[in-house]
Amino acid sequence: MQTEAFSELFPLFSGASPETLEWLLSVADEHEYPANRAVLMEDAWGNAVYFLLSGWVKVRRLSGDNAVTLAILGKGDFFGEMAILDESPRSTDVIALSQVQLISVSAQRFIQTLFKDVQLHHRMLQLMVRRLRQTNVRFQLRNKPPAVKLANTLVFLAENYGHRTDKETEIYNIPFKDLADVTDIGFEETTQIMEKMHSKGWLKIDPERQAMYLINLRQLTQLAGHG
Fold first, then answer.
1. How far is CA 219 from its chain centroid?
2. φ, ψ for residue 157 (rounded to 5)?
């Protein structure tokens, strides 16, 4: 991948120098995983940062025999940085929702890169603060109606990872169980709300293409309280 395309795909590298990007790509490893394959396992020591070139993954925490999805990530995002920065085992695992392509950079080389490029170091801090703010938003929504919380989740996924056209925004057909976990509402509530949104013509699902189309993103945004 060319450095310009790489920096356009990953906001983390928007301010990085071409020399930094060239070196980073030269030491990166490429990976492909099928749907439902574990990309990272809980309790494994952090040895790399992973950058999603295509596809969707879920970050989950295991609790006994249960698994709770904490986040859903798409193309242009990254994961694995926390275990590297605090030099501890991972507290979560990452599972491919769809077929994914990604590249990894070893912990040592990624930290070297942060030290070499001040702009990249600053951008990394900005994005980590942004993730903390997103967590705070979820906390503030805890007492909101389930439909408002679910609309927030869908709008977030659309704005950050969706493919937009003039008529709709396409995201992956995320299983309702994962949507329910991320939104912090029940599975049955999620199913009912999604069916209602479908009946209103706000979204449609194509199981064969594993795609969800948000047709009325404006209405969803208003419901989420962003409009």
1. 23
2. -65, -40
* Closest listed residue to residue 207, CA positions, set 174, 180, 173, 176: 173
Q: Is the pTM of this model over 0.70?
A: yes
Q: Which helix (H) or strand (E) holds 29?
A: strand 29-33
Q: Which CATH superfamily is domain 3-139 in?
A: Jelly Rolls (2.60.120.10)
Which residue shows structure tokens 């309790």? 43
**How many whole angstroms separate alpha carbon 6 and alpha carbon 198?**
36
Note the pLDDT tens digit of each residue in 144-161.
Answer: 999 999 999 999 999 999
Residues 6+ apart with CB under 8 A from 174: 56, 72, 97, 157, 212
Domain at 144-224: CATH architecture: Orthogonal Bundle (1.10)
Helix (H, G, I), strand (E, B) or coil at 204: strand
DSSP state of 13: G
